[in-house]
Design goal:
Layout: H1 3-21, H2 26-40, E1 45-52, E2 55-62, E3 73-75, H3 79-87, E4 91-93, E5 115-123, E6 126-135, H4 143-162, H5 168-173, H6 176-179, E7 182-185, E8 187-190, E9 193-200, H7 215-238, H8 247-259, H9 262-273, H10 278-294, H11 299-320, H12 326-329, E10 335-339, H13 344-348, E11 355-360, H14 368-376, E12 380-382, E13 396-400, E14 405-408, H15 412-433, E15 449-454, H16 461-466, E16 471-475, H17 477-481, H18 489-503, E17 508-511, H19 542-547, H20 549-562, E18 567-572, H21 578-597, E19 605-612, H22 621-624, E20 630-634, H23 635-643, H24 661-673, E21 680-684, H25 691-700, E22 704-707, H26 709-719, H27 724-736, H28 742-752
Parallel strand pairs: 9-10, 10-11, 11-12, 15-16, 15-22, 16-17, 17-18, 18-19, 19-20, 20-21, 21-22
Antiparallel strand pairs: 1-2, 1-6, 2-3, 4-5, 5-6, 7-14, 8-12, 9-13, 13-14
Helix pairs in contact: 1-2, 1-4, 4-10, 7-8, 7-9, 7-11, 8-11, 9-10, 10-11, 15-26, 18-20, 20-21, 25-27
């Protein structure tokens, strides 16, 4: 904000304060307000439109025909004024009539005015009205004038409520278009149905007081808030225990840049100088940032502006004292959590009994929060844009992640239909739960092993709840992801021992830490300081562990000590060549020798395995097979590598089918290459938890599945209805002569035998 804008805004605010302190009735105050603004900005026209009964009504004007006051009305989205309210953005035009949304209102006498500028009057993130100015002379308004208007609009948002210029209900009604039912669409990240009240992960700070009583006191509040915020950012950056550089470092560097940016702090202080409170000043600068974000086409620059938006929200929460997330406040009712993005640690802070679903503005299929949510049985919808513009805190939500939709403020009939569907879903789940003690055996008598994936100590309870045969994948990295620092060897040992104790005589296959790529840690960073263009195929998983040998060394020792007197199953992720397995096993061998020399209790047996995720490994399985006891096929990563398709990209997420001939033929070749070797083969991933895909895997010869706990019941039910000879013969025929639509052919085959694959 320039010095001219500061002076203009201060002058207006001082005079407005006097107007609102007077004993005049509401309409008289508003009439004086437009005169004050018009005089201070030397504007021929100044008008205020307020939202009333869902329509924008001309409440006061200087320069237009007085007969039009309370007569001229327009819908949200109609005309220039309606467009400003609808989009909540500023408009600055040299020739108003040339704009395609211009709507001429003859009763106002505005035909002689050419230039037009308008700003939304925002209340609780919604447009409660519009403030606009006009001139006869065609010209674009100076930035100093626009900034002054925006500052005044912030004050008006408080005044129109506190001074009863409109009914409180009208301010919050926000127009029929924004209060009625709406349907949101996104990308299914975790399937499922849920209903509950909307709860924002980071509740929006409602600014109740805009005009400052003591400017210097407000400035001190901002200075202290900046100091506290910078301490937080520096503390995050200093938590690194080893390693330098990397993508996370770049993010922190960007945060630091904004946190210490003098231009940003200067603009906030100038807004305070104009007469705003600390909260209002931060919000005022944020509005300017949002305007710039809408004009940015460069995605990298837009991301940087989002970083500034996030940082401003952090500063606003600090200065207002509302620092915590919704988790710290506690959920009072069944809730659907709304966030831009979430980390696994943040999700785990919520009360599982109350948290029914999650909707994210961003999110990807491969993010760890999705894996955690899937393990918790919480449906997640991602890639839903503009949530804050549609959903209010406390709104009723029906989340249908199966159909990738969410309904906001649903009608009674929609709720009834949803509840009926939900009840049917619960009936199915109850039927599956009844299969807990049933061993999954096919119609022709073959026992199929159905195991679960886990990553948290609490997940082990799902073994008894589902009757699963064991844990086919324990993701050890969850402990790293939810920690602020590198977990110590003692902490790791304790977790692994508790998991094995809880599992009893059922096997647990521990995957060594799979971090890096999209699972960045603040304390583990690249040496070169460069971000990765393709993190899924970059510095991650076993590649990180072999380079940072201390990381794998500590984990190996922890696993070996925890398994003393028991059988240990260890699995290495993202192995591309046999030598990588050899190096990883050598780390374990060295730690085993050390523990033996210390006369520590050793595992009774150690079984080593690998995750087949990199297609290159399939070409060398004959060399690796004599060294391993088991192979787990990780279908999530394997699929994206085979198709060169990033599954986090919404345009590609549903493009390639898991039951396409390419995938099934590849899997068949892997299975056959291990014939004659004493190697257990399992499919570990989302593919095995889907009934149709599981049917295809059984037809290929897969006899072990490791899936989410929620999928165990449906999979057991499927297994009991399948004749392996029949499906095996059908699969051979299809793969020899692929049908045009493999999914349709497999579905038809199942339906003919009364096998549900939904």
């Amino acid at each position: 904000m320039t010095s001219g804008a500061v002076e203009a805004a201060r002058n207006i605010l001082t005079r407005l304060h006097e107007v609102m302190a007077s004993r005049n009735h509401a309409q008289a105050k508003l009439n004086t307000v437009v005169e004050v603004i018009g005089e201070c900005l030397n504007s021929e026209v100044c008008s205020i439109y307020l939202l009333r009964e869902g329509m924008l009504e001309l409440f006061a004007t200087r320069g237009l025909a007085q007969e039009a006051v309370h007569v001229t009305r327009m819908a949200v989205g109609e005309g220039l004024v309606g467009m400003i309210a609808d989009r909540i953005e500023t408009l600055n035009l040299a020739e108003a009539a040339a704009h395609p949304d211009f709507s001429y209102r003859p009763e106002t006498g505005e035909d002689r005015f050419h230039s037009f500028a308008g700003v939304p009057i925002v209340r609780r993130e919604r447009a409660a009205g519009v403030l606009c100015v006009q001139h006869v002379e065609p010209r674009r308004y100076e930035e100093v004038e626009i900034e002054a208007l925006q500052t005044v609009a912030m004050v008006l948002s408080e005044l129109i409520t506190n001074a009863d210029l409109v009914d409180e209900v009208d301010v919050h009604a926000l127009g029929a278009a924004q209060t009625g039912p709406e349907q949101l669409r996104g990308l299914t990240l975790v399937k499922g149905l849920a209903s509950g009240q909307a709860v924002y992960h980071q509740p929006r700070v409602n600014i109740e007081h805009v005009v400052a009583e003591d400017t210097e006191a407000e400035r001190q509040r901002v200075i202290h808030a900046f100091d506290k915020m910078r301490e937080q950012i520096d503390r995050m950056a200093s938590q690194a225990e080893f390693g330098m550089g990397g993508e996370h470092d770049e993010v922190l560097d960007t945060y630091r840049m904004f946190a210490y940016d003098e231009g940003w702090t200067r603009r906030i202080n100038e807004a305070i100088d104009s007469g705003l409170t600390a909260e209002a000043a931060i919000e005022r600068v944020q509005q300017r940032t949002r305007m710039r974000m809408r004009q940015i086409d460069d995605p990298l620059l837009a991301d940087r502006m989002h970083d500034l938006e996030d940082l401003a929200n952090r500063l606003l929460r600090i200065v207002s004292g509302q620092i915590g997330t919704a988790a710290s406040l506690g959920l009072r009712n069944d809730a659907i959590l709304i966030a831009r993005n979430l980390g696994p640690a943040e999700l785990l802070e919520y009360d599982k009994r109350r948290l029914k679903g999650v909707i994210l503005e961003e999110g990807s299929l491969t993010s760890h929060v999705v894996i955690v949510a899937r393990a918790m049985g919480i449906p997640v919808l991602g890639r839903v844009r503009g949530l804050r513009g549609v959903v209010r805190e406390g709104d009723q939500l029906l989340l249908d992640a199966d159909q990738a939709t969410a309904t906001v403020r649903p009608l009674a009939g929609v709720v009834e239909a949803f509840e009926a569907r939900f009840a049917k879903s619960r009936q199915r789940q109850a039927a599956y739960a009844a299969l807990r003690e049933v061993q999954p055996t096919t119609r022709d008598g073959t026992r199929i092993q159905v195991m679960i994936n886990a990553g948290l100590r609490d997940d082990i309870a799902n073994l008894s709840l589902t009757g699963a045969d064991g844990i086919g994948l324990f993701r050890t990295e969850f402990q790293f992801l939810v920690s602020a620092t590198l977990p110590s060897r003692e902490r790791q040992t304790r977790l692994y021992r508790e998991v094995m104790d809880a599992a009893g005589d059922k096997p647990v296959k521990f995957r060594t830490v799979d971090i890096g790529g999209d699972k960045t840690l603040p304390y583990l960073r690249h040496d070169d300081g460069e971000g990765e263009e393709n993190p899924a195929m970059g510095w991650r998983a076993l590649r990180v562990a072999l380079e940072r040998e201390g990381l794998l060394k500590v984990q190996a020792r922890a696993l070996l000590e925890a398994a003393g007197g028991r059988t240990l199953h260890v699995m290495f992720p993202l192995v591309a060549e046999p030598w990588e397995f050899d190096q990883a096993k050598a780390v374990f061998d060295k730690q085993l020798a050390f523990l033996r020399s210390q006369r520590k209790q050793l595992p009774e047996a150690i079984h080593y395995g690998v995750m087949l995720e990199v297609p290159a490994l399939a070409e060398q399985l004959d060399l690796l097979a004599p060294k391993i006891s088991f192979l787990s096929i990780g279908t999530n990563d394997l699929t994206q590598f085979l198709f060169a398709a990033d599954r986090a990209n919404p345009k590609l997420a549903e493009r390639y089918d898991w039951v396409s001939p390419a995938i099934l033929r590849f899997l068949r070749r892997v299975i056959r290459s291990l014939d004659g070797h004493n190697v257990e083969i399992a499919v570990c991933g989302e593919m095995g938890g889907r009934r149709l895909e599981a049917l295809a895997l059984l037809g290929l010869g897969i006899r072990r599945l490791s899936i989410t706990p929620a999928s165990v019941g449906p999979t057991k039910d499927l297994v009991s209805k399948v004749d392996l000879g029949e499906i095996g013969a059908a699969m051979e025929q299809w793969l020899a002569h692929p049908p045009e639509d493999m999914r349709a052919a497999l579905t038809a085959w199942a339906l003919e035998r009364d096998i549900s694959v939904d």
